[in-house]
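Changelog entry: the AAA+ ATPase domain-containing protein record was regenerated in this release. Current contents:
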Amino acid sequence: MIEERDERFDTASKCICERISTALFNLPADVKKHTQEIRLRVNRPVCICCAEGTYFLGPGGRLACRVIPGLLVAERRDLEESFRNLCSYSIYSHENEIKNGYITLSGGHRAGICGTAVLQSAVIGSVREISSINLRISREIRGAADLLLDQLGNRLQEGLLLAGAPSSGKTTILRDLARQLSGGSRGNLKKVAVVDERGEIAGTYMGVPQNDLGCCCDVLDGYPKADGILLAVRTLSPEIIICDEIGSESEVTAVEQGLNTGATMIASIHAGSVQELMRRVQTQKLLRTGAFASVALLDAKHGPGKIAGIYKAGDLLAEAVGGASTDYGGNSLGLYGIA
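Regenerated structure tokens:
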């Protein structure tokens, strides 16, 4: 497992400029294994982000937990070279991704792009003068969904909404759920359709998923989630549909239509706590579709993929209707599993 994670770090870091990727290559294996993000900001120190905190790349490949003299600083030319590398020297082919703030890379890695927006008729048409890049390293961790599957049991077939803050491991767990369900590791093989709008779950490259999603999984790569869900229902007869970061009006409608065909929905949503989750109007709309019987909350403070609690969707909705002051912390909510 360590060798695989080191390889993923090295593969991802090669996508940025040579001056910085060379320094990153020489980091100790243990550091590479725990790195979640590599952040470049113009004229600022290069950051290595782990679950434990943010570190800076110092002289001789040493890490520093604070700003000290001699840190490796990303220069303007580094950002420009890195941006070209990330686009494989074809910015036009990535234009749609770039205007949405990211570039998907082979292996499922994703680079968040920050710069100056170019507006066209009040809509972002492109981005210029790139000022920062956030390279998120995709981890394929077999068994990441084991605890969740153990605690949910047959309730998974009634739908699951996976909530968590950024970098809490939502995509990693979705990936492993797809692998285990379509591979039959938990009983009967399931026909799984993954709607992978940004290519993070499957890591599809040239039409071939780079991550193992099992033998009975169909991947709709690059499809907007709403379109992909409806297409999967019409053409793939899935038993389970998996997608990440859901919540728009069109996606809620698509989820509801998918439910009416008998498909089980598994999706993720951004939220750092149950309170934050239930304050979002879209969350309540999603839960009211009946597509999600359970809500699992991830605990980013204790590392990616750690489960803070599993809640019954009906109880969360009842509490939301009953009053906004509830702390969502008791068994009255139907909390039936804590890791």
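Residues 170-183 form the longest helix (14 residues).
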